[in-house]
Design brief:
Blueprint: H1 2-12, E1 17-19, E2 41-43, H2 48-60, E3 65-68, E4 85-88, E5 95-99, E6 104-108, H3 113-122, E7 125-126, H4 139-144, H5 152-155, E8 162-168, E9 174-177, H6 191-194, E10 203-210, E11 212-213, E12 218-225, H7 228-241, E13 244-252, H8 253-262, E14 276-283, H9 287-300, E15 305-308, H10 312-323, H11 325-331, E16 336-341, H12 344-361, E17 366-372, E18 377-383, H13 390-403, H14 428-441
Parallel strand pairs: 2-4, 3-4
Antiparallel strand pairs: 1-2, 5-6, 6-10, 7-11, 8-9, 8-10, 12-14, 12-15, 13-14, 13-17, 16-18, 17-18
Bound molecules: flavin-adenine dinucleotide.
């Protein structure tokens, strides 16, 4: 490796390289915390040209490279494996252009999501991509994982906001596809190869984002309900009744009570406990209409109690209960953390079956459950205080999920942690086509090897 370090130093310039003790712990593992490995070399390029030269060299010498964004991924994709060179995008940041008339923003891939959101807001526009990790994750990582968080039900996942991009292929070729138009049917839509492929097919260096109009107003409510069926009825009412339903976050009692009991900045606004809670947000409705819709559902019994945010601060407090997951997870010993997807009609049966199966199987099993219900996405976290490992829990739940025709990942991706489960939700023909694509675009398997489709 020392020969390669010397050669890359000469080729790229020493300001682009970190070696030895200069390599900090942050480059050794993503937010999953699984299997940290200190890379022998970190490259922090400041331009597409440097990335192109680096990949060309690594391809010629068959050197494996792991691409690192904000390291908030939860699937181990950005965590180096032994002897992999880490390519950190942390210096590739900044806004290249905000085109107000076209409502687009072109950004370098290492730019933090929150910086982009704020720049859009300052221009009277918005980027409706939002997730709890907004202050640390990078847009390149969001696009590579096709991230989607709180507003997917109205605006779609990252894919729906990417109009164009620039990426570097394994052999160093730069694919410049800076499309700004909503409609462009000229040949294959090549950007889709890089969106959601978790860095296995190329390194994203710039992204052209579609911006949207800022909402005229927004109202937030926290409501409680007695049954899952009522939650689904409420979802349908909210989707048809509100001008735009921008969030519908469901929290099961186990999640809600743990969040309000164990995190400092949260409190329970209700004086009773309920089986379900929903944090919902509407845009562009009058407050009178927002209240009326919820009042009608209270009268019908679809919801059992409701509290409406009277200020931005109230709204932040409601969201703090939902966003406490990062804090809660960091305190749970060896959690099995799921981001599964299921048809909404099968969700409740699946959760009940999973909880029964796990409780019978493992002593002292505990769970917390919440999800972006309208997106068919549930987050289940299960642990058992040293009585089992997270890996045993993963095996049980994913096997069960297959019978319910769900997906093993609705948003975090496969990374390295779910490669063995990919076959549970993709057909042999789909897997074969994925391998064909990988072979065509990265024949020497230097880009994030072992991620997504696993090792050959
Ligand atoms: C508290 C918390 C809340 C979260 N909430 C959500 C949520 O609501 N929805 C959701 O989808 N995810 C969520 N996540 C997961 C995570 O934030 C997302 O997956 C995010 O998109 C990762 O971005 P990143 O920059 O941190 O990428 P990283 O973790 O650095 O990398 C993720 C993957 O993308 C690849 N990659 C990174 N940058 C590039 C690039 N420029 N080119 C090619 N490949 C690249 C990496 O190799 C790796 O495989 C959450 C995470 C945390 C910690």
């Amino acid at each position: 490796m020392q020969n390669h370090i010397d050669a890359l130093n000469t080729l790229l310039g020493d300001e682009q390289l970190l070696v030895g003790e200069a390599i900090g712990e942050k480059y050794q593992v993503d937010w999953s915390g699984e299997n940290p490995v200190l890379p022998p070399l970190v490259i922090r390029p400041d331009s597409t040209e440097v990335i192109s030269k680096l990949l060309k060299y690594c391809n010629e010498h068959r050197l494996a490279v792991v691409t690192q964004g904000g390291m908030t991924g939860l699937a181990g994709g950005a965590t180096p494996r032994k002897n992999e060179i880490a390519l950190s995008l942390e210096r590739m940041k900044g806004i290249v252009e905000l085109d107000h008339q076209s409502m687009t923003m072109t950004v370098r891939s290492g730019t933090q999501l929150q910086v982009i959101q704020q720049a859009a807001e300052a221009a009277g526009l918005r980027l409706p991509l939002d997730l709890g990790a907004r202050g640390s994750c990078q847009i390149g990582g969001n696009v590579a994982t096709n991230a989607g968080g709180n507003q997917v039900l109205s605006f779609g996942m990252a894919r729906a906001m990417v109009l164009g991009l620039e990426a570097v292929q394994a052999d160093g070729t730069v694919i410049s596809a800076h499309n700004k138009m909503l409609k462009n049917n000229a040949g294959y839509d090549l950007k889709q190869l890089y969106i959601g492929s978790e860095g296995t097919l190329g390194v994203i260096t710039e992204v052209v984002l579609r911006l949207f109009s800022a909402p005229r107003n927004k109202h937030t409510a926290l409501v409680s309900a007695g049954s899952f069926e009522d939650i689904i009825n409420l979802l349908h009412v909210a989707q048809s009744g509100f001008a735009r339903l921008s969030a519908f976050e469901v929290m099961w009692e186990d999640y809600f009570q743990k969040s309000v009991a164990e995190t400092d900045n949260t409190s329970d606004p209700f004086d009773k406990k309920y089986p379900y809670y929903v944090l919902l947000e509407s845009e562009n409705d009058s407050i009178d209409w927002f209240q009326q819709v919820l009042f009608d559902e209270l009268e019908k019994g679809t919801i059992l109690d409701a509290t409406i945010a009277q200020s931005g601060k109230d709204s932040e407090q409601f969201w703090a209960i939902r966003d406490a997951i990062g804090d809660l997870l960091s305190r749970i010993p060896d959690p099995a953390n799921f981001d599964i997807g299921l048809p909404i009609s099968r969700m409740q049966a699946f959760i009940e079956k999973a909880q029964t199966t796990l409780t019978e199987q493992f002593k002292d099993l505990q769970t917390i459950t919440f999800g972006h219900l309208a997106d068919g996405n549930i987050h289940l976290t299960a642990w058992s205080n040293g009585n089992t490992t997270s890996h045993e829990i993963y095996d049980h739940v994913y096997e069960l999920l297959q019978a319910f025709e769900g997906t093993v990942t609705a948003e975090h991706g496969i990374g390295v942690m779910k490669t063995k489960y990919l076959k549970l939700c993709r057909s042999p023909e789909e897997l074969a086509l994925m391998k064909t694509l990988k072979q065509a675009l990265d024949p020497n398997n230097i880009l994030n090897p072992g991620r997504v489709i696993g090792d050959a």
